[in-house]
Amino acid sequence: MAKRTKKVGIVGKYGTRYGASLRKMVKKIEISQHAKYTCSFCGKTKMKRRAVGIWHCGSCMKTVAGGAWTYKSQPQGWKRENEPSKME
Fold first, then answer.
1. Which of 44, 57, 73, 86 is most exposed, with minimal Cβ within 10 Å?
2. Residue 14 carries which DSSP code?
3. How far, in Å, CA of 7 to CA of 36, rounded?
4. Confidence class of residue 86 from pLDDT cuts 50, 70 and 90?
5. Which is nearest to 28 in space by CA: 3, 53, 9?
6. Is residue 54 a contact partner of residue 63, using CB atoms and an 8 Å limit?
7. In 3D, which of 42, 75, 74, 36 has the Cα closest to residue 55?
């Protein structure tokens, strides 16, 4: 079978709609939400997203609450605290 998309990947389903920059942002989010993550209980790469904020390990059958798009979300204010200040 021929490869269907060259650059767009998972957002090829949107076609030419919504604009390129919006599709690039959505691509980053959709790749991270469909990826499998390492389970913090058993250590296997089996943690998968079930619904918004619900993550399930297929190996040890643990279900945990996490981030909406990634298994572990960044703490609130993380970006502002770790950025170099602009007043320097």
1. 86
2. G
3. 22
4. low
5. 9
6. yes
7. 36
Output the pTM of the full model.
0.73
* Burial readout 25-63 (b: 16 or more C-beta within 10 A, e: otherwise): eebeebeebeeebebeeeeeebbbbeeeeebbbeeeeee
Cα–Cα distance, 67 to 75 (Å, whole number) = 10
Collapsing DSSP to helix, strand or coil, 63 comes out as strand
Residue 88 has pLDDT above 70, yes or no: no
Q: What are the φ/ψ torsions at residue 3 (nearest 5 degrees)? A: -70, 135
Between strands 63-65 and 47-51, the pairing is unpaired
With H, G, I as helix, E, B as strand and everything else as coil, classify residue 31. helix
What is the token pair recorded at 43? 């250590």
SS (H, E, C) 71-84: CCCCCCCHHHHHCC
Largest CA distance in the chain: 56
CA distance 82 to 47: 28
